[in-house]
Amino acid sequence: MFNVAAPFTVLLVDDQSIMLDGIEALLAPVEQVTVIGRATTGAEAVALAKSLSPEVVIMDVNMPGMDGIEASRHILKAAPETRVLVLSMYGHKEFVLELLDAGVSGYLLKNAGKAELIDAMNTVMAGKRYLAKEIDALLSAGDRFKDRQGDVAYGVLTKREVQIVKLIMKERTTQEIAGALFLSPDTVETHRRNIMHKLDVRNIAGLVKYAMERGWGE
After folding, report:
1. 190: which residues sit within 8 A by CB, 6+ positions away?
2. Which residues are paired to 135 by β-bridges?
3. Largest CA distance in the chain
4. How far apart are CA 175 and CA 25, in angstroms?
5. DSSP 3-state assignment of 154?
6. What ranges in 84-218 are assigned the alpha helix state H?
7. How many CB atoms lie within 10 A of CB 153?
8. Domains and CATH numbers, the chain
9. Which of 64, 100, 117, 169 lies 20 to 30 A from 214 at CA?
């Protein structure tokens, strides 16, 4: 028997209906947990969070359009008392740090079992942060890239950097990116190096993998 410390309402957010069905089925036997809504896009999640005022939002990251990171920011800005618990198949360090900066209360991987999900919800409802052990270990590990000041501080990608990543995903050359964004090729290359440094990836393959995990691929 799985119990929660106090009754609370939950909004489920995932772009795959089968995942929503699975999470809802897991929570159905827990009488004190009430699923009051389901969303399949970030924009829908924000709208439902504003209208339903759930106490916990279980949020996916990889969604088309507005992803889970942006949706979490909007939800927490509109309703700071809401707890957002991220449930993602990806544990990329940049995801985690960006989400924690946005104010989410916890981060679970989708291989978590029912017991861990209930434990995470109890933890965030108590006003504490919950991180899966894999995520905790990820944050404890240092970055591969070093400079003379030590580890370069984490930084969220700027809007310009996101534009460049998306153009790289479309196989645009440096010259083509420069022309599309009215930048010099040298500036594009500087952005590219900074992006790879921030994301802690070694090459374009790593950058493409990250972008696909964010849902930026077509």
Report:
1. none
2. none
3. 62
4. 51
5. coil
6. 93-102, 114-125, 133-140, 159-169, 174-181, 185-199, 204-213
7. 8
8. 8-140 (3.40.50.2300), 146-213 (1.10.10.10)
9. 117
Structure tokens belonging to residue 71: 């949706």
The C-alpha atoms of residue 177 and residue 191 are separated, in whole angstroms, by: 11
State both tokens at 146: 């070093």
Residue 120 burial (CB < 10 Å; 0-12/13-18/19+)? Answer: buried
| DSSP label at residue 112 | -
Tokens 């919950």 label which residue? Answer: 130
For tokens 């995520």, the residue is: 135
| First CA to last CA distance, the chain | 43
What is the residue type of 157?
L
- Tokens 């190096």, residue? 193
Length of the chain: 218
The per-residue b/e assignment along 23-58, b for 16 or more CB within 10 angstroms, e otherwise, is: beeebeebeebebebbbbbbebbbebbeeeebbbbb
